[in-house]
Amino acid sequence: MKRSFFCVALVVLNGCGGSGSDTNSNNSGNSTSATACFNADLNAIGADVTVVNTRVVNGQSEPNYTERDVVSGQVTYEGYTNAREVLLYEDSVVNKAYIVSDESQQQVITLGQIIDGEEIIYKPNGIQLDYNLRAGETREYPTVSVLTNGTQTATYDISFTFEKNETITVPAGEFNTCLMTLTFDVVENGVSTNAVFTQNIGVSNGLMIREETNSTAGNSTFTEVNELVSATINGETVQ
Predict the structure, then answer these.
(1) Measured between alpha carbons, how far is 136 from 180 in angstroms, rounded to an integer?
(2) CA-CA 20 to 30 A from 84: which of 65, 105, 107, 109?
């Protein structure tokens, strides 16, 4: 599912879907907070979330796709004894993500993933996303080293901005959202890529209602737009 703790890293890797003390903040907006779009229930053990999204890639419509995430339990991962394993179902493929959810700080850290049998770990402290941001505030994070099966394959420089509250209409209906901008500057095999994810995250439900991805590497560009068609959280329909 296109949840902010996980999908952005997967999109960067596939070209498609910690400690807060090391971050820097630049505030240029009002006091409205993105914490309204942090839903701790999505990361609770046993959480079961299914979404159906549209997909438009480089201007071409593709079939809708379904994703299901299940938080299967608490595990020890990369030295974190409170990590949670998330099973990621898409079609017949089951991948995994390992996260730490800090409800008191309204942050989620993605420590690593297993994608198509390859283990991808984010050093030194994972990919951290914070929701305790005011409108116009940007959080910048220390460089993340990406290890694939134990070998460093890339670096990420990441920033996360809460732009404003925004009401949008998608196939699933009308939603009040937090408009967020997530930026990845990636260096992989000597190639630099800039990826910008413009995300509308639902107030209260915390789901990705709409996401637009724009990435550039040299003369190559990639765009993808996903909009929510339907969703259930623990069997209950999101409206």
Answers:
(1) 10
(2) 65
